[in-house]
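TASK: fixed-backbone design
INPUT:
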């Protein structure tokens, strides 16, 4: 039997190459995909450097402090003329602020929101929730969905920033049931409170880089995924789709009916009624006790009608309402008081018109309201 050969010692170069190869494999396995990494880098680049930065920029807490004190916020210059609100918001990377007064949480609302095809990294969500039992339940349910989306969901589904605010006043109605909400005697107080909630939410979230504001009610559960792009493509200062409600008819067949009657063209009858009213009285739409004979967009939808058909409006509803941010910056808000005998969203349309901005409706472009 021949002599036993001793094992050759591995050269240092071989060991180094082996270690580098192992590290490379681990990095490849554990690192996020290129798209996720790019999205993450974009978020970090767009993150606010200080909590006093614009509210629509996501803020990530910094541990760095100077001598135990928080580093003062930087002076930031904004060139507002560079903020566009164009028919091609995706191509121009325009930021969208979606604002929702939320009294109840509907899972279908959130699911529909997640289906919007507009790049989520360009969307900031803002919610105003009342401080009552229903509001507490809505807050808990909303935060659960936010956690799933923002922490464990795919990067493409995550929104740039999410803001939750609680009302600093009590809601005027104890119940948010649909029948109670729509009683005529409750309208002035209810809609005045809604105006206050909308204004508080708007004034605390509208940032200098916001291009569009989409008002989307919490009970809107079905819209086209391209809702933002479709509405913005009309390049209108204020634009509103037609809000309908799906239901089952007496023959147990699926049907739909108009829901929002606040989008209308004015009439001589309504103007005459307003002239005879006291300064604190308001005109209401959709009630037999107050026949205004306005032309309602709710009844202008045609089977197979062109979804891009436009009509001029004097009043708008707020179930789904896209507004160029400059309209709000000009001072158009939701009056919680009688403004030319109008209040809330209808008063907003009137105020915007006084500022030189017109409202447009899309009678054949539909969104759908929850059916209680």
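OUTPUT:
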């Amino acid at each position: 039997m021949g002599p036993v050969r001793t094992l050759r010692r591995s050269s240092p170069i071989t060991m180094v190459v082996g270690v580098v190869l192992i590290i490379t494999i681990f990095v490849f396995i554990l690192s996020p995909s290129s798209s996720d990494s790019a999205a993450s880098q974009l978020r970090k680049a767009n993150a606010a450097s200080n909590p006093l930065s614009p509210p629509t920029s996501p803020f990530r807490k910094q541990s760095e402090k100077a001598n135990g004190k928080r580093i003062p916020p930087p002076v930031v210059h904004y060139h507002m003329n560079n903020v566009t609100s164009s028919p091609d918001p995706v191509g121009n990377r325009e930021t969208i602020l979606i604002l929702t007064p939320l009294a109840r949480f509907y899972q279908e609302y959130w699911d529909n929101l997640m289906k919007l095809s507009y790049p989520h990294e360009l969307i900031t969500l803002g919610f105003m929730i009342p401080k009552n039992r229903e509001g507490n339940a809505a807050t808990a349910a909303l935060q659960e969905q936010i956690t799933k989306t923002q922490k464990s969901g795919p990067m493409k589904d995550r929104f740039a920033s999410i803001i939750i605010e609680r009302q600093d006043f009590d809601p005027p109605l104890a119940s948010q049931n649909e029948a109670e909400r729509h009683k005529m005697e409750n309208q002035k107080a209810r809609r005045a409170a809604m105006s206050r909630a909308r204004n508080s939410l708007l004034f605390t979230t509208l940032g200098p880089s916001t291009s569009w504001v989409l008002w989307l009610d919490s009970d809107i559960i079905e819209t086209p995924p391209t809702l933002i792009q479709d509405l913005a493509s009309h390049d209108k200062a204020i634009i509103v789709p037609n809000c309908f409600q799906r239901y089952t008819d007496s023959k147990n067949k699926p049907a739909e009916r108009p829901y929002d009657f606040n989008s209308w063209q004015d009439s001589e009858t309504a103007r005459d009624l307003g002239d005879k009213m006291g300064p604190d009285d308001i005109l209401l739409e959709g009630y037999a006790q107050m026949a205004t004979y306005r032309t309602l967009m709710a009844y202008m939808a045609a089977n197979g009608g062109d979804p891009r058909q436009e009509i001029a409006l004097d009043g708008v509803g707020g179930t789904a309402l896209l507004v160029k941010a400059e309209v709000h910056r000009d001072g158009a808000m939701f009056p919680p008081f009688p403004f030319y005998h109008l209040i809330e969203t209808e008063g907003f349309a009137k105020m915007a018109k006084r500022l030189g901005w017109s409202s447009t409706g899309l009678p054949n472009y539909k969104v759908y309201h929850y059916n209680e």
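COMMENT: The chain has one domain: 84-369.
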